[in-house]
Amino acid sequence: MALLIVEDEPNIRELVRSHLESEGYECVSVADGRDALDLVNRQPFDVILLDLMLPGTDGLSLCRAIRNEGRNREAPILMLTARREEGDKLAGFDHGADDYLTKPFSMKELSARVGALTRRIRRTTLDRLAAARPIAMKGVRLDPARRSVRVRGVDVPMTPHEFRLLYRLAFNPGEVFTRERLLAEIWQGEAFVTGRSIDTLVRRIRLKIEPDPAAPRYILTVWGDGYKFADD
Ligand code: CA
User: Fold this and answer.
1) 2-127 belongs to which CATH class?
2) How far is the CA of 6 from the centre of ligand 1 (A)?
């Protein structure tokens, strides 16, 4: 789980960051609204913590900008507001915030709110997969409801992670998935997964489905970029 913390008060920023890092989240923190906007246009985050009063641009405009364009359009936003800004909370919801915390807040409260937002993402991802349709590509048939895989007529057991990765690639054959994108889309709930874990997983899937794992026909490596499912 990658979190973005946008907060100009150094004490709060560092406290929030070190606390959430101690809970296993990967955190990026910035003090300025313009820096935050640059970042959200370049990198997907799982949850964004957004201070309402910021130099550069205010939290509400930033909230609206995140919702309107770019890679974080659907990322949950937790607004951080001071008590005197209470009236702005409702405005925050209007601009697309998902929840808010009033300062001063306890670390326990912070964990609870962030935890609730990340659980929601995980559930959505699993729901989407459960509702997804079976697909068949080049002799490989994937059924998400039963999490079953048949390769050239033979049932092949898969772990949930293997299945998710294979399904994601096979659902859009020919489309290149970077490791970052696969991490963000498939492993949203798990901070311990890295680009290298994806390579390992691809190797395991190839051993299971490829006639010759050393010369893959299904999951192709795109050098320097990532992976794609063969589309020709
Ligand atoms: Ca502030």
Assistant:
1) alpha beta
2) 9
Whole-number Å distance between alpha carbons of 100 and 142: 40
Distance (angstroms) between ligand 1 centre and the Cα of 9 equals: 6
Residues with CB under 5 A from ligand 1 (ion): 8, 51, 53
> From the CA of 203, how far away is ligand 1's center (Å)?
47
Rounded distance between C-alpha atoms, residue 109 and residue 181, angstroms: 30
Longest distance between any two alpha carbons in the chain, whole Å: 65
Q: How many whole angstroms from 117 Cα to the centroid of ligand 1?
A: 22
How, if at all, do strands 77-82 and 47-51 pair?
parallel
Under CATH, to which class is 132-229 assigned?
mainly alpha
Ligand 1 centroid vs 125 CA: distance in angstroms? 33
Residue 128 burial (CB count, 10 A) = 10
Q: Structural domain boundaries of the chain?
A: 2-127, 132-229
Per-residue pLDDT 10s for the chain (232 aa) are 899 999 999 999 999 999 999 999 999 999 999 999 999 988 889 899 999 888 878 888 898 888 887 788 878 899 998 766 666 666 666 677 888 888 899 999 999 999 988 887 766 666 666 667 888 888 899 998 778 899 988 999 888 788 889 998 998 889 999 988 888 777 765 556 677 888 988 999 999 999 999 999 999 999 888 999 998 7
Calculate the CA dihedral of residues 61, 66, 93, 25 and round it to 10 degrees. Answer: -120
